[in-house]
Structures are given as structure tokens and as C-alpha cells.
Amino acid sequence: AQSVTQLGSHVSVSEGALVLLRCNYSSSVPPYLFWYVQYPNQGLQLLLKYTTGATLVKGINGFEAEFKKSETSFHLTKPSAHMSDAAEYFCAVSSGGYNKLIFGAGTRLAVHP
Amino acid sequence: NAGVTQTPKFQVLKTGQSMTLQCAQDMNHEYMSWYRQDPGMGLRLIHYSVGAGITDQGEVPNGYNVSRSTTEDFPLRLLSAAPSQTSVYFCASRPDGARKNTEAFFGQGTRLTVV
Question: Chain A residues with CB inside 8 Å of B94's CB?
């Protein structure tokens, strides 16, 4: 069965610092991977996705993620954090029958001045 | 440009009561699903549908029923509410369930409290 593990339920960074949110997946077939962001009291919106092709994927708001098959990872990064990046981030894999989206537990990112 | 619309946004139920959470999408998406979000557990799939008349269970289906009579609507029914069903519920739709690379579009959520 497919699964997603997000390391670190809470991450805190200073404004301007590097953001690194970790995601590892388990899949018996080539995965399709997604990062979603959830701002307070809102639904989830797509940050970026990996399907096939280039392993470095760029998304909205300056985020990017690199698919590493050998490490079964899809970590999310942003070179310089902004206060508006404070939110909860979810990694997800689409796989299996009917391509269900399976989510990780989420990482809450805090950005302090 | 409505997207996925969920109603109500907030609801308080007494144990044993039943209710229906509504979800509608105007994007002609085939695939719709319901998730519940609980602290530290991410989003867990309750039920999903790959088209009108077709539904199936996700990982936490107990206590919930769904039906899909039209492409647009996918209501979630709580048969007899329990405190363990206190959660935030999200409806999501995807253009084509057969394609793995399609993103899901989410509603704003329904915050349900069962007392």
C-alpha cells in the first residue's frame, strides 16, 4: 500500500531563512507526488506536483521540490521564508486503484521575524 | 468561478443525530471524494466516487454513507453522530480519476462538533 511520511509535525524558521519540509513516500509503482498548502481556516491548494520528466519541480510562491527515487523522497524547499508562508503543508501521493490521493500527516510551518 | 462548494461551514450535533454534509462542484469533474482532517493525522479518505452512480470506501468509511446521483453533487451522510466524528471535513474533486497526475480541488471545509 502507498503511504506518505512527513518528518517533523512543526518546523519553525526565521524570516529570510531556508525552508525545508521533508516528505518520504512508499509506493510499489512509479508515484505521482503533490505538495499542498493549507492556510488557516481554508481548504487545501496545490503548490506543485511531480508526474514524470524533470525531477526538480517548481511551484507557486517560490517553492520547489526534488523527486529522488533512490531516496523515495520529495522534499519541499524555499530559499527564503516569508511571513506569509506560515501555514500547514501536506505531501500526497496518487497511486493505486482509482488513483486515490493519500496524504501525509502534515507539517505546520511557523515563520518568525 | 465557484469550484467546490461545501455547506454548512460549521455544525454542532448531539450524539445520535444524523445530518448530511453537502458538496457541489461546477467543473464537471468525474472524481469526487470526502476527507476528514484531524490534528496530527493529516487527511484521511472516507469515501470517493469515480462518476455518477459509482462510489467506494476509503480508509475510514465507518459511520458515513455517500451517494452520487449527479456529476455535480456528492453528499456525505452521518447516520448516527458520535463524538469521534468531531472533525473538519473536506470535499475534493479531480477532473479524471483514471489519470494519476491530476490535482484535486478542495472545498473550504465543514467544521463539525459532536457533543
Answer: 101
CA distances from A49 to A26, A34, A99, B19, B76 (A): 16, 4, 14, 35, 28
- Torsion sign (Cα): B29, A6, A47, A33: negative
Whether chain A has a CB inside 8 Å of the CB on B28: the answer is no
Q: Parallel, antiparallel, or unpaired for β B87-94 and B105-106?
A: antiparallel
Q: What is the mean pLDDT of each run of 10 residues along chain A (113 residues)?
A: 89 97 86 92 91 89 94 96 96 77 94 96
Residue-level length of chain B: 115
How many Cβ pairs closer than 8 A exist between chain A and B?
A: 65
What pLDDT is stored for residue B95 in this prediction? 86
